[in-house]
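Input record (one chain):
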Amino acid sequence: MNRIARFQKVSFEQFSGAYEEEFGGSADEIRKVYDDIKLPKRATGGSAGYDFYAPCDIKLPPGCTVKVPTGIRAEMDREWVLMIYPRSGLGFKYRLQLNNTVGIIDSDYFESDNEGHIFIKMTNDTNEDRTVEIRAGSGFAQGIFIQYGVTEDDDVITSRNGGFGSTG
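The corresponding structure, as predicted from the sequence alone:
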């Protein structure tokens, strides 16, 4: 088995600003949320996906969207990418979808000014009028590391600074 990556928390300062923008809360409340962040883990030895855990309770009525600052960053070897998907049970039961369908976390995102902070934006796309409720600490997304290649004539040497469209 290849060991090609390591999950870490972003700094409290990075998380605090992102969390307050989306959810609000006092500095003490945000500190507690930050301290309780769990690093992604696989559920079983045969699992390909690393579960990402909700940093707080999330209630998502039908048709609504939320951007979740996970507090997590991923340092990985250059030839690898982390792909983020919704947990299959939430997608199956509620039609919970990522807004960009599949999140792509490139290896050089780790060095961005935002510390490579992984955000997961999702929408409750139910057609059954069901509200999604995710408890703090429960898995809501999963990440899978995939190796990739480049073309023989690839000569790109630029680097990124940011995510969500930062390369144009």
